Amino acid sequence: MRLRAAIAALGLLTPMGASATINEQASLSAVRKFQQISEQTLPSGTTVEFSEDELNAFLQFHGSPLVPDAVQDPELELRDGGAEFRAQIELGEAASASDSLPWMMRLLLRGTRAVAVDVDYSVREGRASAEIVRLTIEGVEIPGDVLEWLLEAYAPPELKPFLSGEQQEVGLGLRELRILEGLAVATVE
Fold it and tell me: Which residues does 49 contact at the CB level (< 8 Å), separation at least 6?
C-alpha cells in the first residue's frame, strides 16, 4: 500500500500507450527506486531520478495493480512542469449515466477510446498539486464541465484530492518533485 501511495503521490497513476524502448530492466530499476522512496531509507535531501523510459516500463510490466483494467497500453510523456498520459480506455456506457450531456458527447464517451490527459504537476515542501490542462478523447478536446463529470465518475479515489488543483499533503517523505522533459526528479525529506 505504501508503494502504491508513493506512486500516486508522484502523479503516475493515470497513463496511456506502449513504446518500443520499454524493457523489463528499466521497469525493475523504477520498482527499486519507488521502494526506496516509500520505505524512506534514503538520506534526507537525496534525489532520485526516473527516466521516461523507466516509468513507461514500470507501467507496462508492473502497473496492473495501479492501472484500472479498463486502461490499456499506458504511456507517459514527461515535459517541463507536467506530463501527458495516453492510453486506450474502455469507457463502457459512461455517457448513459448523464442525460445532461449533448448527444455527440454521449457517443464519444462510449466504448474503447484513445484518451490523452495533459497535467501540470508539482510537489514542493511535501505538498502536491495537479491541474488538468487538457483532456482529449479520440483527438476531441473535452470541455471543462464534462471533464469535471468524468473526474468524479472515473478518477481513482486516491487521486481525487491531488486533482482538485489545491495543495495536498504527500506524507511519504517526498519533499519535492520536478518534472523535466523526459525526466522526473524526486527529492526525499
Answer: 183, 184, 185, 186
> How many CB atoms lie under 10 A from the CB of residue 91?
18
List the chain pLDDT tens, one digit each, 189 residues: 454 544 555 544 434 334 334 588 999 999 999 889 888 889 999 999 999 999 999 988 877 666 777 788 889 999 999 999 999 988 765 544 556 666 677 677 778 889 999 999 888 888 888 888 999 999 989 888 878 877 777 677 777 777 767 788 876 778 899 999 999 999 998
Instruction: Classify residue 163 by its DSSP letter.
Output: G
Query: Which grid coordinates are listed for 107?
Result: 457517443
Burial of 13-38, coded b for 16+ CB within 10 Å and e otherwise, reads bbbbbbeeebeeebbebbbebbebbb
Residue given cell 486506450 in the structure block: 88
User: What length is written for the chain?
Assistant: 189
For residue 148, what are the contacts with CB-CB under 8 A and spacing of at least 6?
none
User: How far is Cα 13 from Cα 61, in angstroms, rounded to an integer?
Assistant: 14
As a whole number of angstroms, the distance between CA 132 and CA 188 comes to 25
**In angstroms, how far is CA 65 from the centroid of its own chain?**
13
Neighbours of 184 (CB within 10 A): 24
Residues ≥6 apart with Cβ < 8 Å to 64: none
C-alpha cell at 10: 508522484
